[in-house]
Amino acid sequence: MAKKEVTVEQKLRALYDLQLIDSRVDEIRNVRGELPLEVEDLEDEVAGLNKRLDKLNNDLDVIDEGIKNKKNLIEEAKALIKKYGEQQKNVRNNREYNSLSKEMEFQELEIQLAEKHIKEHKAQIVQKNEIINQTKTKLGERNEHLGHKKGELDAILAETEKEEQALISKSEDYQKEIEDRLIKAYKRIRNNVKNGLAVVPIERGASGGSFFTIPPQVQMEIASRKKIITDEHSGRILVDQELAREEKEKMETLFSKL
Fold it and tell me: Closest Cα to residue 255, out of 173, 176, 157, 167?
């Protein structure tokens, strides 16, 4: 659909209004700032801690199983010692007696080794339980922090979502009133600058946010509002301070009603 014929001043006002709307959306999103990332990082950390707890508990199960096996080994060794002791009563010579004695000594060593391993396993259980308690404490703290951050984010979303959607709708409406080539230029400039400011007023003889002075002749041309002028250093579209002040007042009234 063809745009209605408008003056350069009307175009400048419409562009600056669009900039004020889009900047307000940027501000709302900046209020959320790092919160979504913080929530995501905390969720990842909580998941990591839960995974660590699962592993530690699995380690405990393995250690418990190891203790059971060693206790079974001790019982088997004791049974063998008893068996060999009974057999010694019926030996026919010293060689058989000595052979059984060696078997009994070996089983005694097996018992001692198993008891040593059980002791080590019990020490590991104490250590693992300490780590589990520390991890649970940290997990509790992180979950509490996550709940707080999620609540904070939800509150901001609830507070700003309606205004943000209304502003986005207004931005789309204003874009319909501006010719396509200007919208394309505006969006290109906005994408190329860090703060998203594509249309800026002159402040203290320089374009907003810049230290490069604008020659007086150019400042006069900008103030005349007869043609669209861009800053030769940043590429931003320039408007005079009076126009900017008037449009800011108008848009602040609009924002207050959203």
Answer: 167
